[in-house]
Design brief:
The chain has 111 residues and is α+β, with helices and mostly antiparallel strands. The protein is 32% helix and 32% strand.
Length: 111
């Protein structure tokens, strides 16, 4: 965890280029999923958006114990190779942040 006891969240939305075939899209999804096996990863999910209005969008949602574990993940040859392939195949937006402990869904009733 980070120095404040938080995990580190990494979210990427990949918008595949229009010229990418369905076969290639599936191959890229499998490559992204393979990164979840790296030892720095606590939780890893790769999903294709069901909303196709903006083209093919793939969501990468990863959780790491610390910011340092995330940096170690980014430095792996596996990540660098997949990132290079994604760079040639998609545009993306990234959100990386320390994750606060979740607040329970249960709420006190109003009085």
């Amino acid at each position: 965890m980070t120095s404040t006891g938080e995990h580190y969240r990494h979210i990427v939305l990949f918008r595949l280029h229009d010229a990418i075939s369905e076969t290639e899209a599936e191959r890229l999804i499998e490559l992204l999923r393979s990164l979840g096996a790296l030892p720095e990863v606590i939780s890893w999910r790769i999903e294709r958006s069901e909303d196709r209005r903006k083209g093919v969008v793939i969501c990468e949602n990863g959780l790491f114990a610390t910011r340092e574990a995330f940096a170690a993940f980014q430095a792996t040859q596996e990540h660098r190779s997949v990132a290079a392939m994604m760079s040639a195949s998609a545009d993306w937006c990234v959100a990386d942040y320390p994750e606060q402990p979740e607040i329970g869904e249960r709420r006190e009733p109003r009085r």
